[in-house]
Amino acid sequence: MHLKRWLTGIIALPILIFLIVSQHRWPLYMLLYSASVAALIEFYRLNDSVPPKFVRWSSYLLTLALFAAVYLRQILLVPFVITLLAFVPMAYYMISRPAPDPQGTCCIAGAVLGPIYVGIPLSMLLHIDRFYPRGNLWILYLLIVIFASDTGAFYFGKFLGRHKLHQRISPGKTWEGAIGGLLSSIFITFVFLKAVPINRVVSEMLMLAASLCIAGQIGDLAESMLKRNHGVKDTGHILPGHGGILDRIDGLLFSIPILYIYLSFSIS
Questions:
Q1: What is the radius of gyration, based on Cα positions, of the chain?
Q2: Please, what is the end-to-end C-alpha distance for the chain in angstroms?
Q3: Contacts 24+ apart (CB under 8 A), 262-267
Q4: Nearest to residue 36, comparing CAs of 76, 9, 4, 68?
Q5: Is 0.90 topped by the overall pTM?
Q6: Among residues 118, 99, 148, which one has the least CA distance to residue 34?
Q7: What does the pLDDT look like over 56-85, one tens digit per residue?
Q8: What is the Cα 77 distance to its own chain's centre?
Q9: Strand pairing partners for 174?
Q10: DSSP line for 161-176
Q11: Tens of pLDDT along 124-151?
Q12: DSSP letters of 175-199?
């Protein structure tokens, strides 16, 4: 498992970095949308009651509409698309299942939560890349910080872990691992700024790194909660040693909004 984890990272990471720094942006945007759909499929499979095919496909198509609205800079359409993400499942259940069905409410809630949990954060990455100066470098920085946090948390927890972080949700995670992930994020920020000085205010970047790391660790725990609620270890098996797409991007989903807000205020 450990060897598979590193081999997957060694193969996938250079490809991802190439897509981020390449002059051709469409492959990256297609990857972001594909990751959204794959993570949505995994999320829906977690539920005891998988939403009907119509509801699932409407979520995939509305997520595509969300990406298109962001890409075309039609920001006023974004609230409309998000509203449809809620209204379409509700209308479908109203028409197809008029009899009382308490389980239907849970199914509708799950259908709505998926795109909000997965699609909106990943669409923020598209927005950062298209409309913020050096957006692709900020995305690269975010990925490196989260990767360093995950790696640091794993090894610090493995060799120094004594105190459980949240035993009921994720017994393997420790406070020592969490601190190790934070230190790793701060260290990689120093290294990254030496190579790519995207911001010369070091103290500001260190605070950003700490915020991204903490948000990422909360996102990791949140996904562990979802899996534990349904008694599964991984959401999928598409990435050897890592599990599913959702397993790999869980921390990223929580940290993307932090970077998005930071850039929105710092650039404006």
A1: 19
A2: 45
A3: 262/208, 262/211, 263/128, 263/132, 263/135, 263/138, 266/199, 267/132, 267/133
A4: 68
A5: yes
A6: 118
A7: 999 999 999 999 999 999 989 999 999 999
A8: 22
A9: 164
A10: --SEEETTTEEEEEHH
A11: 999 999 999 999 999 999 999 999 999 9
A12: HHHHHHHHHHHHHHHHHHHHH--S-
